[in-house]
Amino acid sequence: DAKTTQPNSMESNEEEPVHLPCNHSTISGTDYIHWYRQLPSQGPEYVIHGLTSNVNNRMASLAIAEDRKSSTLILHRATLRDAAVYYCILESAGNMLTFGGGTRLMVKP
Amino acid sequence: NAGVMQNPRHLVRRRGQEARLRCSPMKGHSHVYWYRQLPEEGLKFMVYLQKENIIDESGMPKERFSAEFPKEGPSILRIQQVVRGDSAAYFCASSPRAGANTGELFFGEGSRLTVL
């Protein structure tokens, strides 16, 4: 299974943009890139996913490198409620989503 | 439209007892996934089921653990003769489809098992 590498933790100031990086150098051509987040004591929550093109939704933007070996989740204005563990996950056809350690995002007021 | 419902939210068992965790997927979803999360760790895939069928159980321990998703009723994760190492949060997720580009998995709030 292709793996992802994320920083263990990041800090951000409230109302500033946050860029959460993810490396996936062994990604295959058909793997989808998913992002989920998990707030304390809750189940994971879907954030966004994409294949090749950048994606935007109401929660965030996903910027995918041209060679697809890395991606960045962008939160345009961090709020205290965005403090969570963010997981970058690759989905291969027929394989289940495999969660790694994720990045713990701390948001300072 | 109710989300994924898991119960019980908290369960305490003594070593050797059985634990049964239930998951009702979102309406219209026929694909169910179970994940386990040990304290301070990420989620580990356990099993993927469709109605009445186990599709992938590669993450399930070979002994004491079983899962089912009957034609009627919730999916059940059963742990027999629990040990302290089974203490964890067990999350269920559902989706309307599977395969490449599964899209969004909808997770429940989890069932937290504590084994004394």
Structure description:
The complex is a heterodimer of chains A (109) and B (116). Chain A has 109 residues and is mainly beta. Chain A is built from no helices and 9 strands. By secondary structure, chain B is an all-beta fold. In chain B, the strands form 2 sheets. In chain B, strands 2, 4, 5, 6, 9, 10 and 11 form a 7-stranded mixed sheet that branches. In chain B, strands 1-3-8-7 form a 4-stranded antiparallel sheet, with no helix packed on it. The radius of gyration of chain B is 13 Å and the shape is globular. The termini of chain B are far apart. At the A-B interface, strand 4 of A face strand 5 and strand 10 of B.
Task: State the gist of this model.
The complex is a heterodimer of chains A (109) and B (116). With 109 residues, chain A is mainly β.
What is the element layout, followed by pairings?
The complex is a heterodimer of chains A (109) and B (116).
Chain A: E1 9-13, E2 18-23, E3 32-38, E4 45-50, E5 55-56, E6 61-64, E7 70-75, E8 84-91, E9 103-108
Parallel strand pairs in A: 1-9
Antiparallel strand pairs in A: 2-7, 3-4, 3-8, 5-6, 6-7, 8-9
Chain B: E1 5-7, E2 10-13, E3 19-24, E4 31-37, E5 43-50, E6 53-56, E7 65-68, E8 75-79, E9 88-95, E10 106-107, E11 111-115
Parallel strand pairs in B: 2-11
Antiparallel strand pairs in B: 1-3, 3-8, 4-5, 4-9, 5-6, 7-8, 9-10, 9-11
